[in-house]
């Protein structure tokens, strides 16, 4: 999927890659919802604020390190059948969220509240 024609926007479910970690399911969030210590962290202009699933860790991730889960699902419609890895459960959860996005709304609100209390 061409990101120039389909830009990444808050609310998108993505696979996001941070240096030293595998790609991991996340949701793009509005920067103003980030915890203060993450919001103030250095980041390049071509980056997006994300919340990793299911642990609710927030980070800035460069656009080049983000893949829309929608694109991944179109390429590989059943992520759950991928080989066994540490991220298989998270990918399975991300697939469920993509198919039923309302199921994650309550969890996201709780994560945001907890992040702002720390």
Q: What topology emerges from the helices and strands here?
A:
Blueprint (H helix, E strand, L loop, with lengths): L12 E4 L7 E5 L7 H4 L7 E6 L4 E6 L3 E3 H7 L12 H12 L5 H13 L1
Antiparallel strand pairs: 1-2, 1-5, 2-3, 3-4
Summarize the structure.
With about 120 residues, the chain is of the alpha+beta class. The chain contains 4 helices and 5 strands, in the order ββαβββααα. The model has no long low-confidence stretch (mean pLDDT about 75).
Mean of all residue-level pLDDT scores: 75
Widest sheet, order of strands:
4-3-2-1-5
Q: Give the fraction of residues assigned to helices.
A: 25-40%
Reported for the largest beta sheet, the result is: 5 strands, antiparallel
- The gyration radius over C-alpha positions equals 14 Å
Q: What is the H/E string?
A: EEHEEEHHH
Number of strands: 5
Tell me the fraction of residues in β-strands, as a range. Answer: 15-25%
Number of helices: 4
Quaternary: single chain
The general outline is globular
Report the span from N to C terminus.
37 Å
Structural class: alpha+beta
Low-confidence blocks of residues:
none
Organism: Favolaschia claudopus
InterPro entries: PWWP_dom (IPR000313)
Protein name: PWWP domain-containing protein
Domain PWWP: 10-72
């Amino acid at each position: 999927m061409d990101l120039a024609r389909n830009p990444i926007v808050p609310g998108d479910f993505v696979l996001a890659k941070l240096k030293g970690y595998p790609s991991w399911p996340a949701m793009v969030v509005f920067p103003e919802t980030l915890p203060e210590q993450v919001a103030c962290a250095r980041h390049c202009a071509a980056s997006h604020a994300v919340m990793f699933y299911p642990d609710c860790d927030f980070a800035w991730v460069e656009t080049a390190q983000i893949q829309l889960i929608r694109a991944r699902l179109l390429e590989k419609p059943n992520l759950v059948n991928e080989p066994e890895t540490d991220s298989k459960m998270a990918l399975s959860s991300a697939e469920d969220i993509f198919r039923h996005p309302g199921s994650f709304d309550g969890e996201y609100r709780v994560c945001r509240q907890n992040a702002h209390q720390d």
